[in-house]
Specification:
Length: 114
């Protein structure tokens, strides 16, 4: 379901960081695409009206929260106009780092964390 939702924002590869702007949402007609998949979304998400690009961002953000992804926004000014740049990326979770066991001489054990 998440893959269908992400494809509404553009053609992105899975497990990668991707960027988009509010203008991309309008140009890709994301609002209409999300309305089309709303019957599938209602299995996971409460019914909501989708009328603006901001509504699309809210739905995407809610779907990303339980997964290991985050949505961040940066404001940029280009020629005096304000644009929002969004980034979807994997969350960094230091608890998920697994130690690598390396055997050294004299039966000492050394742990390396990568």
């Amino acid at each position: 379901m998440l893959k269908k939702l992400i494809l509404c924002f553009g053609n992105f590869k899975h497990n990668t960081t991707f960027y988009f702007t509010e203008k991309d949402i309008i140009n890709n007609n994301s609002v209409h695409k999300i309305i089309e998949i709303m019957p599938d979304l209602m299995k996971f998400y409460y019914p909501v009206k989708i009328e603006t690009p901001k509504d699309c961002i809210t739905i995407l953000e809610q779907f990303l929260q339980p997964l290991d992804y985050s949505l961040s926004r940066v404001d940029k000014y280009i020629c005096g106009d304000k644009y929002y740049f969004y980034q979807v990326s994997k969350k960094y979770n230091p608890r998920k780092i697994q130690p690598i066991l390396i055997k050294a001489e004299k039966k000492n054990i050394v742990y390396n964390f990568q």
